[in-house]
Amino acid sequence: MKTDPPPAKPQAARPQRRGKEATVLGLAVSPGIAIGTVFDTTEAPAETPRRAIAPEEVEAEKQRLAAAVAASRKQVAKLKARLAVLPEEAQEELEPLLDAYALMLGESRLLRGARKRIAEELTCAEAAVEDEAEAIAAAILAAKDDDKSGLKRRAAEVREIARRLTRNLTARPFRSLKDIPQGSILVAEELTPADAALLDPSRIAGVATEEGGPDGHTAIMLRALGIPAVVAAHGLTEAAEPGDEAVVDGDSGRIVLRPGAAALAAARAGLAAHAKERARLAKLRRLPAVTTDGEEVELQSNLEIPAELPLIAQAGAQGIGLLRTEFLFMNREDLPDEDAQYEAYAEIVAALDGDPVTIRVLDWGGEKDMEALAEGLAPVHAGPNPALGLRGLRLLLKRPELLEAQFAAILRVAALGPVRILLPLVTVPEEVKQAREVFDRVIRRLRRRGVALPEKPPPLGAMIETPGAALAADAIALEADFFSIGTNDLAMYTLAVDRSEAEVAHLYDPLHPAVLRLVQFATEAALRLRMPVSLCGEMAGNPRLVPLLLGLGLRSFSMNASAIPRVKQAVRALKIDDCARFARRVMEQSDPKRIRELVDGFAEGALERG
Ligand code: PEP
Ligand code: MG
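A: This is the predicted complex of the input protein with magnesium ion.
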């Protein structure tokens, strides 16, 4: 990890003749090198769902189709907007194709035919689209025309747009990610956090996508799983062919397709260097995270999915500082009830064997879109701007039955080991107060039920991840038992930059003085009240930022497990007084670029030479 400037706009791919080596640049979001075979996920699910519908469902089905058409139009428009950054040659090839797609998503024969099939054949939208596309493709191929390859191309275009519609209709991962061959490099237009949660790190060598931002949840999940990854690689899906050999360099953001001998040799050398570094860092596992002047620092792990548990044990984490419970709600069509949640949390608490676990209640919303919540079981209207709408704790307070079930499950688990509860996206103290009322109600109910609970209920903490919460931290501190500073959202909301959006990734900068001042303000508010405070955003996992964060007064961090050894190494090389002096210097600066220079300069002096 590094403190590189916010990633510069990635350069365009230079599509080359098939078979030739080609390099595509993107944002490096998960370190490591992968050599493998391209597995392209931008294909339709293996089987289109087929379902007969009742006459009264026709309207709803047509509306589903209309929503999928709207989503597809948006995607095609986005691809078209990107054309400008591609070389002219690629623009010439792609522009007519995208225009053809846009046309088919207008008042086309495909859509008219699909709507007719829904109404007359009483079939679901997916089947109607596929059948109509197949009928059109067959008619095109049967046409009398000498330009056979032209006919084939047009038929393929119809099928392709039907596949896009089906993908948007099913809202499922573009392809089952379970059957990916061992050693694959997953290539996709976009990978959602829900898709990433399905990845098996033992099968996937690396990931490369056209979309995505540096601290989006997909990037976080890939880092947590230790899968080398590059996102925002514009031109990638056009340049890559399924079956191509590829190198994904999660350190530099470079993807080499069909690498030649020199590129392969460099990648192999990189792999060997990483393995050596891992072996060296593994030796730190049992050593304490203590500064040279004896200040103890707590290093905990974040956890996105239970598959990370073995990594947490290997990393020598002192517990889990942020258990994101969203994984339980993803990739399913119903909601997990109290018992199902209890089982899942109990397994994690048992695996931690007495180390503390901070469980964050559901943080739905924004990019973390979940079918079960979105589709009917607990209808949620996120509004036109989901990041500013009903997400996090706001949603839970609106749907207290969700919060009650989750509190009940966590309270039961608290009998098995030390547990804390964290509330996401708090903006006003009143929200914590209301959450505590629900919490107390659930405790009383469980006691009436005769459930064994710890004598002292688990602490209830607040995430500080909006500028409002940071600036009102002293007031929120009166209601909360501890703080966890979430710098991913804090940077997003402070700078008005979507953390998972490739187009604005160059503006996303947690080292912006505005973000640092908010971190400082919230930290000092907690320290004044002697309230525990930790930092669990992605900043915590960057060893170069350790001097600054220690200097601001923080002594507890939670990060992806694989970052712990390097952060521990940094802690063990530092003296608190030096860090405090350094932080004072940084906080006098107003230019993010200067801050980065200072941070890098200090790291090179104190961490890397030492
Ligand atoms: C954060 O916003 O910094 C955070 C830790 O929460 P999440 O990344 O899950 O939004
Ligand atoms: Mg957050």
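The chain has three domains: 22-45+176-264, 55-170, 282-609. Residues 465, 486, 488-489 surround magnesium ion (ligand 2) (CB under 6 Å).
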